[in-house]
């Protein structure tokens, strides 16, 4: 039996929709549609003066700050000092409108990301696939992309990574600010320092932004708690969703002695307990350091071999920075006893920039990253409570997500290895640049 060809009318509609998506109006429509739909979905909650996701906790911290009790300044805090700005700012119009102001703030941050990707007037049409991928990412991760701090840090990281070569001082300031909100953009900074010739200008912007933040906290009396975020989670057990927790999740399902999933009331999260779980959490911490050191060596080696011999050094630097940033960030997730759904917003921004500078190389990882993001949202919040109750189906979704994460990490290491250790018969494993210019590595 032969299949019938697609309806001409349906095919025409698809082509028209694709053509519309490649226009400025189409991209703006997609941006507005997503954010408007999100606000409309939460409109009853907004009208009632409520908050969703992590925002009840954020609003409580903001209200306490207004009343004189500030995180970091008055007590140890789980977040870096820069997170005070996005958490306290939405309280400016009062606690009743906190949710609405937060969503509008994140819409502004996402617009910054699109402007960095496609130009201030969205004039760079070749960058539209990357811009649409960012909108797809925040859609797939909607429960966390608009309701947690990563929704602020991720767009800043995108803008910083895009502007490393063209505006290195601004890029350094943005990456530093994102790092002071959520620590993970430090991996981007490390890749930039290892690879880019503009590293000193990037460092200047980063140091300037960091000094402003640290001086403000010290003058306010919070010097003793400035780096409390590094130690406050030191003694916790592996978190339920972390890759390292997988054996104990299934040990709980199989009712093995001592294995269980328990609530950590102090940190408001679920953890796994069982024989060897705490030791495994400590071991992956050391493995993270080893992985970082190995990736750094590969980056330096690749800069000395592939970048030095590339016909366009800036383009080669841009591609290598993105690849190194992804490998370092993936290591932060894979070798971490803490695991949360918003961690996918650590990787997705780097994939966006990868699609911008090297679309052929990043097209396949982008697809797998999208699947990983979708599985993450299935795990949390849709099947999270069954997972807490050790449901095998929910645990299988989590297992598949974690396997994909490890696979993406392995892919990045293999790609770095091929670049850093080229064979004599094929000295360049990364494809030659196309005639079109890259906004990351070419001056405007």
UniProtKB/TrEMBL annotation:
The residue ranges crossing the membrane are 26-47, 96-118, 130-149, 169-193, 200-220, 283-304, 316-335, 341-357, 369-387, 393-417
Transmembrane helix listed as a keyword = yes
Q: Which keywords label this protein?
A: Membrane, Transmembrane, Transmembrane helix
Highest taxon of the source?
A: Bacteria
Protein name as catalogued: DUF2029 domain-containing protein
Report the source organism: Microbacterium paludicola
